[in-house]
Amino acid sequence: MRLKTVFDGEIEVPDSRIITFVSPLVGFDHLARFVIYQRDPGPLFWLQSVDDSAIAFCVVAPFTAGIDPEMTIDPDDAAAIRSPGEDDIDVYTLVVLDRDLDKVRTNLRAPILVGRQSNLATQVILDDPELPICYPLKAVLTAAEQG
Amino acid sequence: MLILTRKPDQRVVIRGDEPGSEIVITVCASERSGQVRLGITAPRRFRIFRGELLDEVRCSNREAVADPTVADLIAGLRLGPGAPTGAPGADPGKEKQS
């Protein structure tokens, strides 16, 4: 399908790349379908809404970006996205961008789980108070830039 | 908002139409400090959160809506050449636009 995006105009996306939230992003109950894509290789992706072309989020894949947060996936959450388990699940966390690199941060407390086979997604809120809602990304992004 | 007055050990039951959609909230104790301890039972499909945490996540989600004016910022970050490519295994970077 042709997808209108906030950052890249119209792009062509195979229908198989559309993910559907079984429980919505908190505060965005009306948006179920998204596409995750990136223009350039790196730790950041766009999470572009299919239902509202004006809404896109920046997300990071914390486990490939080297953040490696200590989180475990609850089997109930895996079941909710009809996923057989961890090996089938991609984890992303929402990034708040800021002109001040020191303020760019990601919310490790409420990751997005995406089942690769099912293309279903959910935002879970983890019980662990050790996981920061504002995890600074400067170190990760600086390391990425230096290659 | 429905407001009920309950004593310790008394319950409030919320029942949905579907079978097995019953939520029971029990007042376990109210303390002098003004805090109230609640016991909650609900089917597994209901997630239970402290309201403030949900508020925090909602607020953080809203902040994360990307402002189109940050496009140049992302370009500035160059999305990190040298960093691992794609999502774990799925490599969504591969089949972006054509």
The end-to-end distance of chain B, rounded to whole angstroms, is 52 Å
* Series of H and E elements of chain B: EEEHH
Number of strands of chain B: 3
Main pleated-sheet profile of chain A: 7 strands, mixed, barrel
Provide the spatial order of strands within the biggest beta sheet of chain B: 1-2-3
In oligomeric terms, what are we looking at? Answer: heterodimer
What form of chain B results from the Cα inertia axes? Answer: elongated
Question: Biggest interface: chains and residue counts?
Answer: A-B, 57 and 42 residues
Structural class of chain A: mainly beta
Question: How do the strands line up in the largest sheet of chain A?
Answer: 3-4-5-6-7-9-10
> What does the overall shape of chain A look like?
globular
Rg of chain B, rounded, reads 23 Å
The stretches of 5 or more residues of chain A where confidence is low (pLDDT under 50) are: none
Share of helix of chain A, binned: 10-25%
- Strand fraction band of chain A? 25-35%
- Average residue pLDDT of chain A: 92
SS summary, helix count of chain A = 2
What is the rounded Rg of chain A? 15 Å
Structural class label of chain B: alpha+beta
Count of helical regions of chain B: 2
Helix content of chain B: 10-25%
